[in-house]
């Protein structure tokens, strides 16, 4: 089973520009699918469309979210396309297979006041507080993903010209505002050297072990400050990215520019932030206008 999965991931890796997290998701989905097939005594070469439908029902009974099931189906489709392409199987059992419809969920957006309160909390008198402030400021200033944040290396941050370079599946250069730039400079000058244990470490943001900050580590950081701020919303590391996009659009930025800054391949993904703003304006009107 491991060889089949590794061959599949290797072909994806060389054929498409996919992030490490995306490849791990594909690998995890296919491993779970193959384990299911093994449990029911069917080899992947002999899978029929009905077997995949049964697997979908199995995932639903397990309480998997619709989005997770849709992603699993996408992984299985990619798996069988490659198997057919390499003549390992003759027929693709995923043809005409429908994915469950995903209800479009509006992203959680912080108000500008909530963002200001959150960003004001980290202390600028100790290495941790200085680092935390720089991370929060750069997330809101650029809208980068958390993975892109923790994957930043020293050479990706240009303090002189005021930009960062994100080298994900869609490489892009993003300008940094003066407030976030000041926070980055303070981190480099006052904090990073104290946190650094190995002079060869290239990661820009470091934890107390002198190693690259992890997703889990940053999750704890943002949860902590959200709790201290008393913000009564579900806040995740992605919340500042959502808020960045919504606030830009709310203040007149065009969708195409926001799409490029976020690194979205499809503008329809960016469109959801315009819908959030439209819904918010509608709610304000209904609550405020005497004849609404």
Description:
- This protein is mostly helical and 292 residues long.
- It folds into two domains: 2-85, Tyrosine recombinase, N-terminal domain (DNA polymerase, domain 1, Orthogonal Bundle), CATH 1.10.150; 112-286, Intergrase catalytic core (hpI Integrase, Chain A).
- It is 59% helix and 3% strand.
- It is built from 13 helices and three strands, in the order H-H-H-H-H-H-H-E-E-E-H-H-H-H-H-H.
- It has a three-stranded antiparallel β-sheet, with no helix packed on it.
- Helix 6 (127-142) runs antiparallel to helix 8 (178-190).
- The protein is elongated, with a radius of gyration of 22 Å.
- The N and C termini lie far apart (62 Å).
- The mean pLDDT is 84.
Q: Which structural traits does this protein have?
A:
3% strand, Tyrosine_recombinase_XerC/XerD, three-stranded antiparallel β-sheet, Integrase_catalytic, mainly alpha, DNA polymerase, domain 1, 3 strands, 13 helices, 59% helix, 292 residues, 2 domains, hpI Integrase, Chain A, tyrosine-based site-specific recombinase activity
Topology:
Layout: H1 2-15, H2 20-40, H3 49-61, H4 66-85, H5 112-120, H6 127-142, H7 146-150, E1 157-158, E2 163-166, E3 172-175, H8 178-190, H9 192-195, H10 215-229, H11 239-250, H12 255-262, H13 267-288
Antiparallel strand pairs: 1-2, 2-3
């Amino acid at each position: 089973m491991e060889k089949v999965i590794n061959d599949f991931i290797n072909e994806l890796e060389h054929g498409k520009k996919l992030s490490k997290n995306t490849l791990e998701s594909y690998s995890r989905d296919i491993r779970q699918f193959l384990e299911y097939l093994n449990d029911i005594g069917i080899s992947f070469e002999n899978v029929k469309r009905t077997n995949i439908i049964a697997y979908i029902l199995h995932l639903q009974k397990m309480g998997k979210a619709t989005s997770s099931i849709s992603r699993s189906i996408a992984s299985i489709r990619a798996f069988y396309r490659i198997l057919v392409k390499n003549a390992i199987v003759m027929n693709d059992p995923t043809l005409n297979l429908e994915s469950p419809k995903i209800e479009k969920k509006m992203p959680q957006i912080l108000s500008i006041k909530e963002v200001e309160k959150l960003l004001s909390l980290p202390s600028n008198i100790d290495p941790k507080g200085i680092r935390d402030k720089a991370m929060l400021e750069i997330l809101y200033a650029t809208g980068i993903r958390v993975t892109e944040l923790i994957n930043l290396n020293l050479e990706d941050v240009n303090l002189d010209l005021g930009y960062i370079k994100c080298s994900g599946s869609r490489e892009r250069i993003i300008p940094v505002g003066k407030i976030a730039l000041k926070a980055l400079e303070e981190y480099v000058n006052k904090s990073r050297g104290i946190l650094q244990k190995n002079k060869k470490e290239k990661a820009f943001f470091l934890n107390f072990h002198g190693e690259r900050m992890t997703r889990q580590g940053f999750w704890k950081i943002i949860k902590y400050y959200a709790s201290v701020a008393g913000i009564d919303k579900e806040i995740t590391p992605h919340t500042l990215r959502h808020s960045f996009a919504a606030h830009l659009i709310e203040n007149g930025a065009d969708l195409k520019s926001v799409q490029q800054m976020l690194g979205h391949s499809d503008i329809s993904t960016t469109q959801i932030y315009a819908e959030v703003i439209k819904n918010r304006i509608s709610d304000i009107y209904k609550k405020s206008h005497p004849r609404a």
